[in-house]
Every structure is written in structure tokens, then in C-alpha cells.
Design goal:
By secondary structure, this protein is an all-alpha fold. The protein has a domain of 132 residues: Four Helix Bundle (Hemerythrin (Met), subunit A) (Up-down Bundle). It is built from 8 helices and no strands. Helix 6 runs antiparallel to helix 8. The N and C termini lie close together (8 Å). The relative contact order is 0.16.
């Protein structure tokens, strides 16, 4: 019976009169609808893809011959990889917007890309062309509104998931109490 009650709580189809019915005094926090977050993810991906041709122009191997540290070559390669990962991750969130882990992965990949590019821009400005560095930063800055919307979506989604968990936990505790009371009454069979 405990297992049944818990499963019904999780599925949201509780229909055991007088026993373990889900009740909620508060509605869950509002999360952007799938159709609201989808354009943000599309825009984020499109802006990120605009970075690819700029990254392809960079020549960090030549910078090393001009005295730049070797780490710029590695940063450049990692930035290109991270760009691809970001676009792929954003596509996954579009397909499953309710998955908090996917949304977090996308956000963290965006942050990682931004950090790599901010570091790489110094090399671009010092060893290649300051205008290309400015262009790189400009395209990166255009994604700030999308980053902020994604961050807010993640915050709202996390709050919703947390509240859902609290409701399920509270109802499972209440259900457990009801079942314990029923099994401890004289003349009732104990359920295993």
C-alpha cells in the first residue's frame, strides 16, 4: 500500500478516498512556457554560431612566434570545442525544457565559452588585430540578454522542482502516517 500511495503521488493520479490524497496550499512558481524559452535558446545558439567565423580567423600558432604564451593555442581549440558543445546543449534543452540538468549544462557551457573568449581576446588584441578582438567581444556581448533569460529560467525551474519535491515529500510523510495508523488498529492486518 505504501508503494502504491507513493507511486500515485509521483504520477499525480491519487484517487484513494480518505487516505493519501495530494493537497497543495500553494501553486508552484511560474516557469516560462516551452514556447517562451525556445526563442531564447534559438537566439542564444544563433549568436553563438556567429562566433565561429571569427574564431576561424584567429591564428594563435602565429602569436606564439610573436612571443605569445602557448596557452593561447589551447584556449583557442577549447573555445571552438565549447562553442559546439554549447549549441548542442541548447538544442537538447529545446527538446526537453523541463530538464533542469540540461538547462544548467547549457548555462555553464555559455559561461565557460565566455571565460575562454575573454582570455583569448587579450591575445587577439596584442598579437593579431585589436579590431577582431573588439568584434569578438561585441558578438559575445550580444548574447548577454539571452544569458540573463536562461539564468532566470533556470532559477524558476529549480524553484518549481524544489516545491514539487517538498509537496511529494510532505504527502509521502502524511500517507505513511495514515498507513501506520491503519495498520496499528486492533483487528487489522499488517501490510508487508
Amino acid at each position: 500500500m505504501k508503494l502504491l500511495c507513493t507511486l500515485l503521488l509521483l504520477v499525480g493520479m491519487i484517487a484513494i478516498p480518505g487516505e493519501c490524497q495530494a493537497t497543495s496550499s500553494q501553486p508552484p512558481p511560474s516557469v516560462s512556457a516551452e514556447w517562451d524559452i525556445s526563442p531564447t535558446l534559438d537566439s542564444l545558439s544563433a549568436q553563438a554560431r556567429r562566433l565561429k567565423p571569427i574564431l576561424d580567423q584567429l591564428t594563435p600558432q602565429e602569436w606564439v612566434s610573436k612571443g605569445a604564451p602557448d596557452t593561447y593555442v589551447l584556449q583557442w581549440k577549447r573555445a571552438q570545442e565549447e562553442l559546439g558543445y554549447l549549441v548542442d546543449s541548447a538544442k537538447l534543452v529545446e527538446k526537453q525544457p523541463e530538464r533542469l540538468t540540461l538547462a544548467l549544462d547549457t548555462y555553464f557551457r555559455l559561461q565557460s565559452l565566455e571565460a575562454r573568449l575573454n582570455s583569448l581576446v587579450d591575445g587577439v588584441r596584442n598579437y593579431q588585430n585589436p579590431a577582431v578582438g573588439d568584434l569578438l567581444m561585441g558578438v559575445l556581448a550580444e548574447n548577454s540578454a539571452n544569458r540573463d533569460k536562461l539564468r532566470q529560467y533556470i532559477t524558476d525551474l529549480a524553484a518549481t522542482k524544489e516545491q514539487e519535491f517538498q509537496i511529494v515529500d510532505k504527502e509521502a510523510q502524511r500517507c505513511r502516517g495514515v498507513l501506520t495508523q491503519q495498520t496499528s488498529k486492533p483487528g487489522t492486518k499488517k501490510l508487508n
